[in-house]
Amino acid sequence: MKKFLLLTFFSIFSFANENYINMKNCETIKLSQYTVLVSCHKIDYLIEYRKVDDEEKDTVKKITAITLKDQRIIKSVGK
Question: How far, in whole angstroms, is CA 33 from its chain's centroid?
């Protein structure tokens, strides 16, 4: 039983460590006060924010995923 728990712990630790290393390759560039470009794993995400009066409302206006071949809108608020 101890060997099984130890093996499980090491496998989870190695998986988490691998994902952490992949996250280090991401870059964030602030283009303006309401626009951020996140480049991660050969995909760029353009995030546009909006100014809201209520703190409980979502401030993200639009998220666009950009690759070499196309671009897709992931989230968009109609305003």
Answer: 19
d(CA 57, CA 40): 27
- DSSP per residue, 65-76: EE-SS-EEEEEE
Place of tokens 């409302």: 57
Alpha-carbon distance 10 to 30, whole Å?
Answer: 37
Strands of the sheet containing 71-76, edge to edge, are 27-32, 35-40, 43-49, 60-66, 71-76
Q: pLDDT per residue over 5-54, tens digit each?
A: 666 766 666 666 555 555 567 889 999 999 999 998 788 999 999 888 87
Distances (CA, A) of 62 to 37, 50, 51, 57: 12, 9, 13, 14
